[in-house]
Every structure is written in structure tokens, then in C-alpha cells.
Amino acid sequence: MKFKREQVTGLVLMLLGVFFGYLTSQFSKPFTPEYPGPKLMPSIAVFGLVVCGFGVFVNGCIRNKKGVADKVFLNKEGWKRVLLTFALLCAYVFAMKYVGFLVATPIVVFIITSYFAKASGYEVKLWVRILFAVLVAVLIYCMYVPLFGMTLPDGLLFE
């Protein structure tokens, strides 16, 4: 049986869900009904990855049986962007463990926005990218900590 693009994509999404589920389980705060902690949102995202990956895989199996031809999915440059983004997100998860949310998030947001602006051909000033990265981190922090009463990773260096 030859796997089609959708089947491979579905399997990759499910594997990513399992991988990030494992990383999420490493957070030190306990997951309780009274206080879900920082595991709640990543756990929801992991569940979504696995469910959506399964759906994409099943759809690919149905299309494979019908003999529907694959279109070009990504070129070489597109695959490089996907792999670089994945590597950066993995590094972000590990960085949060050591330096915490408030240090890791602005840095990662700045790198991602800079990379994708350059790859898309947009000229975005340095100060705009820095301001955007800091604002994203501050807004997320303000939503989770004061508004929802949850905690975000402090990092082992700051405990």
C-alpha cells in the first residue's frame, strides 16, 4: 500500500500530538480539577493535534481508495521552513523549562516573526518586531496569571 500525502500528514500530526503530550506531562505543576495549572491549554492543543491528525489520516485513506491524485504539497524551501519552525518550537518548550515563559516567549516570537517576514519578502522594522514579541508575551501573561489565576513556567533558573 502506498501512503498518500494526507495519510503521512495525519500520522505526523498524531505523532506530534503524542510527542508534545509527553513534553506537557513533564510540567511540574499538578493537574487537578480545582486548579488545572499550566498543563490545561497545551493538553487541549495536544488533544486537538491527535484528533485532527486522525481525521486527516482517515480522509487520506478514503481518498486513496478512490484513487484521487496528490497535488504538490510543499517544495524544498517549504519543507525547510516547516522543519525549522518545528525545531524552534521544540527548543521553546525546553527553554521554558529553564528560563521560563517571560524570557523564552519574546525571544521565540521575535525569531519566528523575523524569519517568516523575511521568507515572505516583507520588510518589518526591528523595533516593530521587538515590540510585537514583547506585547505578545505580556498579553498572554496578563491573560493567564492575573485574569485566569493560573501560573506559567518560571524556569529552573528563577526558582
In short:
The chain is mostly helical and 159 residues long.
Structure description:
This protein has 159 residues and is mainly alpha-helical. The chain folds into two domains: 1-73; 74-159, no CATH class. Helices cover 72% and strands 0% of the residues. The chain contains five helices and no strands. It has helices at residues 5-25, 40-66, 76-99, 101-120, 126-147. It is globular. The chain starts with a helix and ends in a 12-residue tail after the last helix.
Task: Present the secondary structure layout.
Elements: H1 5-25, H2 40-66, H3 76-99, H4 101-120, H5 126-147
Helix pairs in contact: 1-2, 3-4, 4-5
- Percent range for helical residues? over 70%
| N/C terminus separation | 52 Å
How many strand elements? 0
The major sheet is characterized as: none
* SS content category: mainly alpha
Proportion of beta-strand residues: under 5%
Report the total helices: 5
H/E element string?
Answer: HHHHH
Any idea how many domains? 2
- Which word captures the global form? globular
Low-confidence stretches: none
